[in-house]
Design a protein that fits this description.
The structure is a single chain. The chain is mainly alpha-helical. It folds into two domains: 45 residues; 60 residues, no CATH class. It is built from six helices and no strands. The protein starts with a helix and ends in a 10-residue tail after the last helix.
Length: 111
């Protein structure tokens, strides 16, 4: 069984740590702290959390664990483009989907 003095020390240590964390959080609030944080980020550059769009996409593609996905994505995109280039006018005329949604025909009237 622990002594009451060690329990009190443990409790006081816990509250001192909590107070230090609270002071750290309080110091990070306010207009001055926000301006300091913005300046710090400007000096350090963008982390992955600030990346958007294609820059984030390329950043994620560089990670080793994402490479199989990136190659698969590249393969599917390349295959899709190739298939679209081979889609001739005769195939478009025979495609109910194409005639319904992409042509200038009157088949859209029912939708």
């Amino acid at each position: 069984m622990t002594s009451p003095a060690s329990s009190i020390e443990e409790i006081n240590g816990y509250f001192k740590n909590r107070m230090a964390e609270s002071k750290k959080i309080w110091a990070s609030r306010g207009k001055e702290a926000h301006q300091a944080a913005v300046q710090k980020r400007a000096i350090e550059g963008k982390s992955w959390r600030q990346l958007r769009g294609m820059s984030l996409f390329f950043h994620e593609m560089k990670h080793v664990g994402n490479r199989p996905f990136a190659w698969g994505f590249f393969g599917v995109a390349l295959t899709s483009i190739w298939i679209q280039t081979k889609f001739s006018d005769d195939m478009k005329a025979g495609s109910e989907y194409w005639q319904t949604f992409h042509s200038t025909g009157d088949k859209k009237a029912g939708h």
